[in-house]
Design brief:
heterodimer; A: 327 residues; mainly alpha; three-stranded antiparallel sheet; two-stranded antiparallel sheet; B: 75 residues; F1FO ATP Synthase
Amino acid sequence: MSKLLSRKVLVPTLIIIGALVILNLLPFPGVVLPEISIPAEPVFDLFGFPITNTLLASWLTMVVLILGSWLVTRNLKTVPGRLQGAFEMIIEGMYNLVEGAAGRERARRFFPIVMTIFLFVIVSNWLGLTPLFGGWGVLHHAEHGQAVEWLNDSHSFGLWTRAEAEAHDGDYYVLAPMFRAATTDMNVTLALAIVSVFMTQVYGVQALGVGYFSKFLALPSLAKAFRPGIGCGGRIGAFGMGIIDTFIGIVESISEVGKVVSFSFRLFGNIFAGEVLLGVMAFLIPYIVSLPFYGLEIFVGLVQALVFMMLSVAFFVVATSGHGAEH
Amino acid sequence: MDSESIRLLASALAIAVGAIAPAVGLGMIGSKAMEALGRNPEAADQIFVPLILSLAFTEAIGIYALVVALIIKFV
């Protein structure tokens, strides 16, 4: 009992209860259920080319990454300072992870691209959780029962919470946020997935030569049946193996496409669902209840970036190892 | 039932039914990983990467259901 009443427990509890009471008394604006739209909303026009909020966000991600790497590598020292030390720790940890999965030689080759993917995904995931994202942007004024025409409706610029105050019966405001996390756009995740799967083929050809493609088109295996100097029974057996390998090749080709789909859907689904979850939770019970989910989303952002990276490494390793059938 | 209510039902069912199997799978992966850790705590580093990969593959199925539900609801 005395433990329960100790200052360590009592003070935070009182602070939380006080905050809850004050938050309920203060005339905060109500939280509006955000308009959920899977395609990214265009926010402005650049010479007839619609610029979507996720495109802006991915530019912002790049700026953050470029500025960050410039700041960190500006004056490298043999004995690292605090900033350099922290980043060396991160890079070294990730490098060890890749090395554990791919081995010494291949880790050196794979690391730059998978780390770039990791950094891009994690920075854009975590940027999407900052207050800069989602809450403000172009407000579209629309009538009920009428689809919003992005860039064509009368629109103004401002905070999301203003919308409810100004809406009347029969019309409403829809917000196109100025920034929306880049990974909540299927195009971004699809591009990353295509880069990863394309590089899988490149590394496969680099390691195994043209023979890499025999995984998909089992010509060498079929050709074995027409080798001279094997008996009739051996010929039939080899031909049977060739047919089986051909079908395995078809399955392999489909799984290559499946990789793109699963890469892009996994990342998009996780991050987009996270944004929807945060929006809905904040709408149901404003301000406090969405905080644990916020922590969850930080974790999910890290895990998804890690998963994208480690899956890429695993596929690269499979592609460069050659397959058991050829000895 | 009009088509709008069928859409709502379909999207709810898509995620509700689609989340069952991945949930079971994730639980099995987690329990096996914990079991392995209990038997051999030094193997934590070697278990980590395969654990993350298999979690990702299993979770992806749930995410497919989620994407389908979102598409039914909003597109």
